[in-house]
Every structure is written in C-alpha cells, then in structure tokens.
Amino acid sequence: MSIQWLEPSMNPERNRGISRRAFVKSAVAIGGTAALSACLGRESPDLPQGPDDLSTLPARQHAWNDALARDDHGNHVPPRHHVVRLLDYTGDGTPDDGERDTVESALQTLERAYPRSNEGLLFTIGYTPAYFDRFDADRPAGLPDPEPLANFEDPTPDTPDAAIHLASDYGSVLLAAEEALLGEREEINGVDVETDLANVFAAADLADGGMARRTGFIGDGLPAENQDVDGIPDSEPVDEESPLFMGFESGFAGTQATEDRVTIDEGAFAGGTTQHLSQIRLHLTQWYEQDSREHREATMFCPAHAENDRIEETGENLGATSGVGACADDAESDARQKGVVGHAQKNARVREDGRPIILRRDFDSTDGDEARVHFLSLQSAIDDFVATRQAMNGDDLAESGAVGQRTNNGILQYMSVERRGNYLLPPRASRALPTPQG
Ligand code: HEM
Known about the structure:
Oligomer: single chain
Mean pLDDT: 94
Radius of gyration: 21 Å
Strand content: 15-25%
Low-confidence stretches: 1-16
Bound molecules: protoporphyrin IX containing FE
Number of strands: 15
Shape: globular
Order of helices and strands: HHEEEHEHEEHEEEEHEHHHHHEEEHHE
C-alpha cells in the first residue's frame, strides 16, 4: 500500500486506532488498486462464487430484497457500502449488437464472481433520458429530464448516459467489481475477466464538475465513525449506533414501497423500474447544536411521536414501521397548532394502500469531505418521486404561515439538493444498451 497515496485519515502511521469499518469506508471513497489492497488487508472476505446457471437470477435487476439480510423486526438491511459510477457511452450514433454483447458479458462476469446478496454483490445498470435521445423513437414513458422540484432549489441536472449502482457489505468486493468493469484486472474471485466496459463507456463528463463516481455507506456505526467532515459540527454528535448521519433509522419494512409497486407493469420495459438519484448536502450544525432531541423527533417523524416519547435512541424500538401513518392526517393541524411538521409525516400523505409509492435505497456519503446523502429511490415512474417530493416540500403548510418554507417544515432546513438525475432500470434481459423499444 502506498502511504503517500492515501488521504490522511487512511494513513495507518497517523491513525493506528482507526477501526476496520471506518478504514474500509475511506478505501471505498478513494477507490483504485491501492485502496483495494488496503481494504483486503482489513476485510479478507472468503466468499463463494455466484451461480453457474445465471438463469436462476431474478428477472428484475432491482429485486434486491430477497437477497438482503433482515433485522430482528423483519426490516431489510441495506448493504453497508455503495458506489455509483456515472458513465457516458463512447460510441458514435446508436449502440450495436457487438457492444451489447460486451456490456452483457461484463455484467455476467460480476454475477458469476459473487453471490447475489448483501455479502456478495448487488448491482443495477440504468439509462438516462439523454441516452435514449440518440434513437429516433420516443423515449420510454415515465422518464422525464431531471428538473428542480422546489421553488427554493436550483440543482444541476445530471445527464450522463448510464449509471451503475454497486452495493455490498464488503468494500473490497465493490472495488474489485469496479476494477473488473474497467478492465483493470484479469480475474475476480476466481472468475476470468474476459470482457469489460472500457471500450463502450467512459466516466461521465458532468456539468459543473459533477462527481462521476459517488460513494457512500449506511449501517450502524458507519456515520459516527465518519463524521469528521464539513456539515457536521465538531462536537462528534452522531449517535454511535445510528445508521445515518441524522441519527435515526430509515427504511422500515412498512414505510417502503414493495418491489412489485415500483415495477413497471407494461410496455417495452415491463419488469424494470425508474431510479431517481439526487446528491444532497447536509447542514447539521443547528440540528445537533441548537435543536433539542424533541425537535429532531418532531421534524423527522411527527410532533405526536416527540410528545409521547415514542422514539428511543435511533428508533429501532419502532419495529417494522415508523408509525407515522397515524399522524399523516394531522400534518396541517400540527403545522397550525404546534408550529412544526414532520418529514415522514408529510411524505406519508402520498401513501397508497397504506404504503409509500417509492422504494428508498439512499445512503450517506463523505465524498469531497462533505456530509451528503446520495438519495436513490425506485418507483414505477418518475412522477411518483415528484409527487412524494411535493408532499415533502409542504408548500400547502408553509402558505398558511404556520411553518416556514423550510424552517420547522420537516428536515428541509438541514439539506440542499445539489444535483438530480433520472434513470430507467430495464429488466435484466434488456439491461445492455437497450433501445427505447427494450
Ligand atoms: C437528507 C435526506 C433524508 C433523510 C435523512 C431522510 C430520513 C428519513 C427518515 C429517518 C424517515 C422515517 C423513517 C422511515 O420511515 O424510513 C423518512 C421517511 C420517509 N422519507 Fe425521507 N429522508 C431524506 C430525504 C427524503 C427524500 C428526498 C424523499 C423523497 C422525496 C424522502 C421520502 C421519504 C418517505 C416516502 C418516507 C416514508 C413516509 C411514510 O412513512 O409514508 N426522504 N426519511
């Protein structure tokens, strides 16, 4: 491992006490061969290979839930480490079948190399409206250009051609998978790497210097160990057990859309889904230094949860649902009478059949040494994300003057959306450089 090459927080000479999990997180953020060998020295996973018969894998790329671990309450536990690579197609005109074979074969190499699970590797590939615009036919339905979704935000649209989302509990698995895709290694977990994506895709050239490689983590302890970044006060406030920087559990089984609900059910991409990916900056100084615990509970969940002390520590005691379904109808009266409304409470107003209409697979990040969330959600059409975001804006509640446009109005005050991108995740059978007809 080259000591000079690593950022200070990874330099073992200066950080003898750094924990294994914080070290792995830093390695994923940095990427590359040196980070991979540093990571392997700490993790040494002994993983079996993936299946010989790939037809046993699910038809939906986004069918991850059955491959995830569950906690004691039955909630799906997301993989701890994440990388998203935003890519531009490098060919002229439209992709040909040879390029499709290349992409499919490179992706199959990863599937053969690792079990499709949180301990092995989960991944998806998706395509933007900009990608589909190179074809004569219309874009697939439900896939608009990314645009601002609140009158107080001015995000940069992300318009690469594609995005690959890789996730695993092991940072070394992600780094090895990236190297295989880039053609930088000859074998991966004992499987020969015969094709890679280097002749078809390159790192996306994004507007305003956007990051084409986005990394992050979610899971108990990781945020606390990585809180030494801009956006979080120096007092080390993040709960040692929290899975996210803001201190609470997220993604209860009962507060997520089902995979069926977010699956496109007809047309060329039936069996696929859409993905929204936003890059969000966190500003948590006031959250932790001035706001009380009660205020944090009220603005994240709902005032009734705070008044009745329903949330212990990070909220694991809530079980398999947050319980905000019961306070969704009180959003307006809470805003008027209590001067505060909760983030989850507002979002619960767009539930269908008692559940949200988007499936969140977001994670925290220290990319650029700044506290961020890479908010990744799946829904059958981007409209469902837009409807949820409008509920989260709470414009109707701010208009009455009971809460501010961003203050006391959920968690809007503590975050700013820097970039937005929309993607179509085809079913596995048409995931390699699809045409608008699938
Ligand atoms: C800084 C970024 C964010 C953080 C830290 C965050 C955190 C949370 C937390 C802790 C909950 C309550 C627990 C749960 O049910 O999962 C929640 C609920 C939820 N959030 Fe967020 N969230 C963020 C951004 C967003 C965005 C951008 C959206 C979509 C527009 C969103 C949509 C939802 C939905 C749909 C729910 C569940 C509502 C229901 O129960 O019906 N969140 N979020």
